Structure to design on (520 residues):
């Protein structure tokens, strides 16, 4: 997507002259590929993914770090992409739901969510799955209660929590028995 | 969000200089609170200084037997760090009682101390708030104040400090190391955050442009008898109504030294050394703990929706000290992280 290289924005709060904020090219490493885009400093990682790169699997729920729908993995760790500035993610490896599996080769968590009916509307699901992958990477949860606690940053408006828990436990236990 | 420029500092000196060169600038750590406040138009910096390239991510032992938490160490990396878990389990427990896994992966230790109140009116720019717009008035005193302060408040402000991590840090007597335009200095934890008085817009005693470089823990970690008890409206991912960090050193059944700090009740982590003195040399019994609890809430004041916190704080103190003595946490299925009242 092309953007102008210079944009003029309203001046800051002290009513000084309008400031010219250069939109500069930023290279982000997303799902194994380098992607270069022209963005302003205030573009969040979430908006960069959705509005500039057409990676709309990552969802915007509250946009304030409360719901977890925007969860992606940065260097293997789950974060809220709505509270991250894209420019601060240069040099990091970003993984979104599009990078976890494909329609032909579903990620085990995607398959488990389908097998266990772990959603109704599906809006929170990409965030739930990325969060669950982060949980597995972190390795701090062993029991159902620990999974509940460490998945509490992902809200599900439909209330599919019991089936989400079953799906996550299944993949976690399958990984544990393989290890 | 208003427009702003962004630079990335690679040294502490460069960050401090960049801050001094731009009026209206702010340091950007994990961003979990700052970006949220900017989206709400509550914070309006015109220049951000990104800090994540600074070499302040380490957690390392200090020569005096303490532990240094780099300002940019994440809350998650701190809570799960082997030295923290072994020597300062109270701190680990406190951190893990707060926020969500995603936020703890992003949020830095220094940023945790600098997060701002979650007072509804502070966030609602359509209402008066002395913290957000000095002199405009306090909407909480006669408004909805379930989450507000019962201790140390003023006629200007009854906001609380929202951090969990800061409560054990207060009990453990951490020291905050800062670097600024006039050099470096150390701030005792008790002197770091402020009471609102008539300047509630100031949350802490950092001078303009000062940057936290580390949080230092003294050697004594109270790793044998401790509890972080957090009471809230749901079992996870909610701010404390009342929380208690309790740490004891016992000789048999006698208390050699006790520390106590409360969250959710004041504009800063609330530590009452006169109350702690009532623990020293006393038997570790519920009677002792009740005397201490009564001392802590002496002078507490409610504002109708939050008056329940006075009794809640008393009971939480007794329970936390009892748990710290016995190191016997609830084991029912809902008691993970000791968070269920």
């Amino acid at each position: 997507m092309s953007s102008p290289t210079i944009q003029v924005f309203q001046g800051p709060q002290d009513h000084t002259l309008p400031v010219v904020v250069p939109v500069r090219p930023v290279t982000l490493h997303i799902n194994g590929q380098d992607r270069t885009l022209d963005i302003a400093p205030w573009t969040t990682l979430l908006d960069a993914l959705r509005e500039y790169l057409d990676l709309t699997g990552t969802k915007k729920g509250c946009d304030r770090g409360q719901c977890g729908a925007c969860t992606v993995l940065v260097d293997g760790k789950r974060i809220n992409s709505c509270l991250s500035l894209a420019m601060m993610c240069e040099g990091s490896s970003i993984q979104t739901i599009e990078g976890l599996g494909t329609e032909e080769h579903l990620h085990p968590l995607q398959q488990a969510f389908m097998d266990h009916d772990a959603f109704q509307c599906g809006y929170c699901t990409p965030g739930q799955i990325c969060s669950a992958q982060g949980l597995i990477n972190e390795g701090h949860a062993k029991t159902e209660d620990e999974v509940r606690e460490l998945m509490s940053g992902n809200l599900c408006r439909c209330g599919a929590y019991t089936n989400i828990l079953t799906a996550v436990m299944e993949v976690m236990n399958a990984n544990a028995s393989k290890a | 969000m208003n427009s702003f420029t962004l630079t990335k500092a690679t040294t502490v000196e460069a960050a401090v200089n960049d801050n001094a060169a731009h009026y209206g600038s702010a340091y950007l750590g994990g961003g979990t609170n700052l970006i949220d406040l900017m989206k709400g138009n509550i914070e309006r910096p015109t220049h951000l200084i990104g800090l994540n390239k600074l070499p302040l991510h380490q957690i390392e032992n200090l020569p005096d037997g303490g532990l240094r938490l780099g300002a940019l160490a994440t809350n998650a990396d701190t809570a799960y760090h082997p030295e923290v878990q072994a020597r300062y389990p109270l701190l680990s427990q406190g951190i893990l009682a707060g926020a969500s896994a995603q936020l703890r992966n992003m949020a830095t230790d220094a940023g945790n101390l600098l997060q701002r109140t979650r007072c509804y009116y502070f966030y609602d720019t359509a209402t008066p708030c002395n913290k957000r717009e000095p002199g405009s008035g306090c909407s909480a005193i006669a408004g909805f104040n379930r989450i507000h302060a019962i201790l140390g408040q003023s006629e200007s402000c009854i906001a609380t400090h929202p951090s969990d991590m800061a409560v054990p840090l207060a009990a453990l007597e951490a020291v905050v190391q800062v670097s600024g335009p006039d050099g470096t200095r150390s701030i005792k934890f008790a002197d770091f955050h402020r009471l609102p008085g008539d300047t509630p817009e100031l949350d802490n005693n950092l001078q303009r442009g000062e940057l936290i470089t580390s949080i230092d823990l003294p050697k004594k970690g109270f790793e044998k008898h401790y509890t972080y008890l957090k009471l809230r409206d749901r079992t996870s991912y909610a701010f404390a109504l009342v929380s208690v960090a309790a740490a004891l050193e016992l000789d048999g059944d006698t208390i050699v030294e006790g520390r106590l700090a409360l969250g959710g009740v004041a504009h800063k982590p609330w530590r009452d050394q006169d109350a702690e003195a009532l623990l020293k040399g006393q038997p570790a019994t519920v009677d002792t703990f009740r005397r201490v609890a009564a001392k802590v809430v002496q002078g507490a004041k409610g504002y109708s929706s939050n008056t329940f916190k006075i009794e809640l704080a008393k009971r939480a103190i007794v329970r936390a000290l009892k748990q710290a003595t016995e190191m016997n946490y609830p084991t029912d299925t809902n008691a993970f992280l000791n968070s269920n009242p």
Notes: The longest strand of chain A covers residues 24-30.
